[in-house]
Every structure is written in C-alpha cells, then in structure tokens.
Amino acid sequence: MTGPDRVERSDVVVVGAGAAGLRVALELATEAPALAVTVLSRGEPLSSGASRLAQGGVAAALGADDSPAHHAADTVRVGAGLCAQGAVAVLTRGAPGEIERLVGLGAAFDRVPSGGLALGREAGHSRHRIVHARGDSSGAEVVRTLVAALAGTDRARVVVGATARRVVTAAGQVVGVLASTDDGGTVLHAAPRVVLATGGAGQLWARTTNPPEATGAGLALAAAAGARLADLEFVQFHPTALDCGIDPLPLVTEALRGEGAVLVDETGRRFLLGVHPDAELAPRDVVARAVAAELAAGRRVHLDATEAVGAAFPERFPRVWAACVAAGVDPRREPIPVTPAAHYLMGGVDVDTAGRTTVAGLWAVGETARTGVHGANRLASNSLAEALVFGRRVAASVAEADLRLPARLPAVAPLVLPPAELEAEVVRDLREVMWRHAGLVRDEAGLSEADRSLDVLAERLGRVEGTAAAMLAVARLVVSAAAARPHSVGAHLRADDAAVRVA
Fold this sequence. Notes:
Blueprint: E1 6-9, E2 12-15, H1 19-31, E3 37-41, E4 58-59, H2 68-78, H3 85-104, E5 119-120, E6 130-131, H4 138-153, E7 156-160, E8 162-170, E9 173-181, E10 186-190, E11 193-196, H5 217-224, E12 229-230, E13 235-242, H6 255-258, E14 262-265, H7 284-296, E15 301-304, H8 313-316, H9 318-326, E16 336-345, E17 348-350, E18 362-364, E19 369-370, H10 382-400, H11 420-437, E20 441-442, H12 444-461, H13 467-484, E21 493-494
Parallel strand pairs: 1-10, 2-3, 2-11, 3-7, 11-18, 17-19, 20-21
Antiparallel strand pairs: 4-6, 5-6, 8-9, 9-10, 12-17, 13-16, 14-15, 15-16
C-alpha cells in the first residue's frame, strides 16, 4: 500500500470553485498576494457546480425604500425566527457592497431605462431588492465575473479535475487535502489552511434542481475531520422545478412569480389564495407544501405565466424558456408543469461569522457552511449574497491566521474506492430512500425506515471512501437531525407533529 502519487504545497487550499470559493480566492489574490492559493474544482468553473445555475439573483438592500434592517427583518421572519442575528446583520449590511464590487468588475446586471439597477421582488421579501442578470442567468453572470477577475490577478492556481476525498489533519490541525484526479491518480495538496466551498447536498434526493456535483462532499469531509455540523434537518425544497422527468430537474425561477405568474391546478384554480395572504409570494416552504399537497391529492400543478410574461418569455427568462422548449412546453401560451424538488441546505458545517469551523485551519463558506443566516428556511436570493459577503470575510480570516505546516507531514493512507458500478447503484438507491422517507414531509416511521435502509446500503458498499460513502455519511446525519427534531418549523415538516395539519 502506498500513499499519494505526489505532494503539492500551498498556503491555502480552497475546495470548490462556485461563487463562494471564487470569492475567497479572489479576495486572497488581491488582498493577500503573498499567499499561494490553490483552488480545487471537479469541473470547469464556468460549466459545473450550482452557482452558475442560480436564476433568482442576489438580494441586497439597494432601493430608496429599503435598508439592511428591512432585509434583515425579512430574513429572520422567513427563517422562522431561528436565524443567528449577528450573521444576518453581516449579510444584509455587506450585500450592497458586494453588488458594487461585482459591477466594478464588469458584472452586467439588468438595468432600468434610466440606467439604475433593476430590482425584482421574490417570495418572502417586503421590498424590491433582487439584482438579476439577463432575467434568469444571475448565477452564471456572477461566476463569469469572478472567474475573469481571478484570471486577471494571476495569483491563484485553479486545478480542474480534482475531487477532494479527505481533509488530512495532524495533532488536531489541518495539514491539507487528499484529492483524486480524473486520470486515476492521487495528490496530497498540503496546506495549513483549507476552505471548504463545495456547495450543497441536493443530490441526496431523487428529485433535485442541484447538479451532479452537489453531493454534500464538504459536509462529509468536515465531519470526518472532526468538525461540528448543525441544522441538517433544514432542507429547502423549491416549489417550482420543471416536472419533466430528467435529472436534475430544471429550476423554474421564483422571479416568474415575482413578475405575476400564478400557481394553478389542472382546472385553473389558484389554490394558494386560501393558503397564505401572499399567495404565490409566500415563503418557499409554504408554497412547496401547498404544491406537494395538490400533487398528493392526484392533481397536476402548473405555473401560469401566459398573462404575466407571455410573448416576452424568451427574452426575459431565456434559461427557463430553453428548458421548457426542450420539454415540449411553450410557456408563452401554456402553463408550466411543476413539482417541488430538493434545492438548498440551510444547515451545514457550523461556523462563526468569519467562517471558522471547530477544527484549527479549517474554514467553510457558502452552502457548505451553516452561518445561521438562513435559520429554518432560506429567504429567496440570499444564497449568492451569503456566498459573496462571507467569502470576503473568510478570506480575511484565512489571511490573518498564523498557521504553518509541520516540519514533517504525516503518513497518508491510500484511497480505497469502490467499483464504479456498485457506487452508482448505491447512490441511486440512496436517493430514492431519501426522497421517500426524508423529503418534504417526514415522520418517525419514515425516518426509521430511512435509517434502516441506509444501514443496508452501507453494508453493501463496504469500508471504502468515495462519493457514495460520503453521501451515505451525510444522509445518515440528515436523517438523524430530522429525527431529533419532532416538531415542525420552517422547511422541516413533521407529519406526526400534532400541532401541524398536513394535507
């Protein structure tokens, strides 16, 4: 048995090249250029990961009638009162500055005829504060801007085709990341500072809007290294994914509802009018449950934008338009079939407002992290804002940390990966288990069944590392967290909570 094929040294390793990881790397490259930074990415940043798929936009209090205090109040209300007030203040105060920085870097956000930024409104927001790019291509524009800016600094190395498999520690401190490469090799990226920015865990569920990379890898890496995780029961299921049977399901942006699109059943009835005063603009958990209840009753659900958007659909929402056309739907003339799908993890690696975990030398940022900003339910378009605001803060914390590698690196055991066919089978079955028993609606019996089923899958997989093993570890943690919270709150709905009526 041998260790890694080679060792490469850096001052900082950032795992993940979405909005959060890129923001960290860019800040380090510009404000701490003496540090050697390596960014590990499974795929090309412009064509992989969840950040580039974000349609809704970036929430920031920029309007004349708005303020960070208003933004904070909306965030806490939608988060069911479980948000960390300090983290919310950091987010809402910092978001306007991040928009200004992106504009300065050349981000092409949508504007009104007078030249100012066009501000949209989405579910849960009391003001128009959502900054978009090309209608529904906001995440792609943010990533494009950050990639271009980072390339212009020539101060950070982006390694594509690298999958982090293990955070390596010695004497309780991080000393690097063991990664596999697309050509079958292994590399120890030695560094005294590691930032996890690997995104969410939507791929744990059979129906998700998340790309293949969203396996919860950062959560598994952190947990194995001894870091504390929190709030894993809080999983946001987006109410409007395109119900077209592909994987992942295309997102049908909330901005459509902000523009006046309505949710209807197969008879054309707006069923949300009797559910919440804000109807289609109610918080996501409310809308998702209402949609799920209609589907469970045997009715189809559609998002009707024929009047609100109509003929302008291809220009105003090009990404949704393309997905609809590919599915044989013309949203200019007919309603869009929709279904809830796993979309965002509010919990994650427990961090402070500087992104520090409970392990020395380890930070987490973006959807991988649990800052406390989102509480039990994320306010729409706060995710990109969090990635940017906290990305900058994490970089500052990393730069200030006085950490060094030991004179002698520890021995690193080799990776043991399962056969590809077995791994694919286990992942498929795991996703079905999580969708059936730990999805939008949970109860004790279902969670117990999920726990037993995951045990069986773990036995089938054996003592190995890799994607399936990491997903199993995270799925077990999610099920355990959901079982430990018997009462419904925010996005966590327990059907066996006597205080809650489930349709």
